[in-house]
Each structure stands twice: as structure tokens, then as C-alpha cells.
Design goal:
Blueprint lengths: L8 H18 L6 H4 L1 E4 L4 E6 L23 E7 L1 E10 H6 L1 H9 L1 H20 L17 E3 L2 E5 L9 H10 L17 E5 L3 H9 L21 E5 L13 E4 L7 E17 L4 E15 L5 E4 L3
Parallel strand pairs: 1-10, 7-8
Antiparallel strand pairs: 2-3, 4-11, 5-6, 7-9, 9-12, 10-11
Helix pairs in contact: 1-4
Length: 307
């Protein structure tokens, strides 16, 4: 009767790691970052992004005069650098011999992927959470009432105020009506999604789905979502202060591909695994290259710190 040998373990483990990892990679996992960022493939480590260039304003052309030809400009360059993120696991030969595929499943599959994705969630959400104090390419905070324009003395304002209430929610939507392009002309943008803390999702539903205006002792019909309806994205990675109940909230225009938060992907998730014969330890690691940043300052997102 054939029996297993110690020397068979490396080969069995290698096959097990590939099987478990590939199975885990195909499993659906709850991910928020794809919903709140625009992914861009960039084979180079450093990617450069410019605010969408705009022409000057149109003007009357008197008879016999020349037409004014405007140059297309590249405004406010943002640089995003992709970095290598990795996590590994190891198992001794004693662990593998005692419970080969149990150990492989517990260490080299879903747990490794989840840890890598958790880090990516934090990186993407940090752009939002820290946007009230992080300076962008135009020299002001990501969320600011004074985003300068290249060809106009006017300013863009994407800084909202106050907690999430019916009035503040409507005011946040209206902010998008006043966004201008780099020439100072009105820019076509509307909010499509509301990003909030998971602790505020019931509040958002009350505001958006009540038949009457939420939190009012009146018979006023709730028309909050009759104009510019948005979808809710509730995330546990959005900042929340338990002692005060304060949490920021963000209105996002996901129809703009070159604005807001960019997830720059250099390469996908890669698996490497090997056997170290000296200490008789099996090791595996997964690696991913990406970078995140906010481009096109003043466009794509409007936000309130929640107070």
C-alpha cells in the first residue's frame, strides 16, 4: 500500500496553495473602494494627471474680424506614485504534516487577500477622510471654498458644512450647480452617490426615503430625492467619532472619470510561494502595486466634516 513521505509535503503544499489562493481570489468580497474611486491602469510607477483643460469663453465675431483661437491647456498637475504592498504567511513542516490543507486554507488563501484589500480600503478612504487638511495641486485643501481657476478670477467651492440633515443634504446637492470650469463657465456635474459612515446609514435613509420631511413636525412632503437622486454608499472606513457622533459625509459625481479620487494600478495581485528546506518552513506572499490620490482639484467630490 502506498504511503506518504515527508518529501511529498512541499509538492502537496504547492498544489494546495495555488488551489486555495485561486479559489479565494474568485470569491466575492465586500469592497467599497471600487465604488468611490476611478481605477486607472498605469504601467509606470509614477503617473501624472492634469485638471481637465478648458477653452476660453465664446464671444461675438464682428464682420470682417478674426476668430479667436484658444489653446488647450493642461492645468494643475497631480503626481501619483504607485507603491508595493505585500503580506506573507508561513507554516512549519510540523503544521503542514499534521493538517496540510487546513493550514493552507487558514493562512495562504482568503486571510491574505482580505488583509491586502483592507489596506487598500484604508488608503482610498484616507484621501476622503484627510481631505479637509490635505493640500491639493491647486494649493488649497482638497475640500475648500476657494479652489482657484486657471483662466478666471472666480473660485470653485466644494466644502460643505454641518451634519447630515435634510437642509444640509439639499444644500450639498445645490453646490454642484455652481461648479465652474477653468474658464469660469458653469461645468456639467451633478452628485450621483452619497458616501457616509455605516453609523449614519439609517439617518441617510430617513432623510432620503421618508414620505414627509424627516425630523419635522409638519406635513411637508419630502422631495429630497425628487431632484438629483443619489445612491448611498455606507462604509466602516469613513471616520466616525463615537463620543460626539460626528462623521464626515461626501457627495460624489461618479460620472467624471478624470476627477475625484484615482486608484492608479500598476499590477494586479500576484502570489509567490516557496519552500525553505533548512528550517523546513513553507512561505507564501501576495503583492500588489498601486497608488491613490485626488486629481482635478475642486471637481468630482463635495464634502462636509460633519459639524
Amino acid at each position: 500500500m502506498a504511503t506518504g513521505r515527508m518529501s511529498d509535503i512541499p509538492y502537496m503544499t504547492a498544489a494546495g496553495v495555488d488551489l486555495i489562493f485561486n479559489k479565494a481570489a474568485k470569491m466575492p468580497m465586500d469592497k467599497v473602494y471600487p465604488l468611490i474611486s476611478n481605477e486607472k491602469s498605469q504601467p509606470k510607477v509614477i503617473g501624472n494627471y492634469h485638471t481637465i483643460g478648458d477653452l476660453g469663453v465664446a464671444a461675438e465675431k464682428p464682420e470682417g474680424s478674426d476668430i479667436t483661437y484658444h489653446k488647450i491647456k493642461e492645468n494643475y498637475k497631480t503626481t501619483i506614485t504607485s507603491k508595493r504592498y505585500s503580506i506573507g504567511a508561513e507554516a512549519t513542516i510540523e503544521q503542514l504534516e499534521a493538517d496540510l490543507y487546513g493550514v493552507v486554507d487558514q493562512q495562504f488563501g482568503t486571510p491574505l487577500l482580505k488583509r491586502l484589500f483592507q489596506l487598500k480600503e484604508k488608503k482610498v478612504h484616507d484621501i476622503y477622510n484627510d481631505g479637509f487638511a490635505t493640500t491639493g495641486a491647486d494649493g488649497v485643501y482638497m475640500f475648500s471654498a476657494s479652489h482657484p481657476l486657471q483662466d478666471s478670477a472666480l473660485l470653485n467651492d466644494n466644502l460643505l458644512s454641518g451634519a447630515l440633515t435634510p437642509d444640509n443634504f439639499i444644500a450639498g446637492k445645490q453646490h454642484f450647480y455652481a461648479i465652474k470650469d477653468q474658464a469660469g463657465e458653469l461645468f456639467d456635474t451633478v452628485p450621483t452617490h452619497l458616501l457616509i459612515s455605516v453609523y449614519k446609514q439609517w439617518l441617510a435613509l430617513q432623510i432620503m426615503q421618508s414620505e414627509l420631511v424627516a425630523f419635522e413636525l409638519s406635513n411637508t412632503k419630502n422631495v429630497t430625492e425628487n431632484v438629483l437622486p443619489v445612491k448611498i454608499i455606507a462604509s466602516k472606513y469613513v471616520d466616525y467619532t463615537a463620543s460626539t457622533g460626528v462623521a464626515p459625509w461626501f457627495l460624489i459625481d461618479k460620472s467624471l472619470e478624470n476627477a475625484g479620487v484615482i486608484l492608479q494600478t500598476k499590477s494586479g495581485v500576484r502570489l509567490q510561494h516557496w519552500w525553505e528546506e533548512g528550517p523546513d518552513i513553507y512561505k507564501g506572499k501576495i503583492t500588489e502595486w498601486y497608488g491613490v490620490g485626488a486629481v482635478s482639484p475642486g471637481y468630482g467630490v463635495a464634502a462636509s466634516p460633519g459639524s
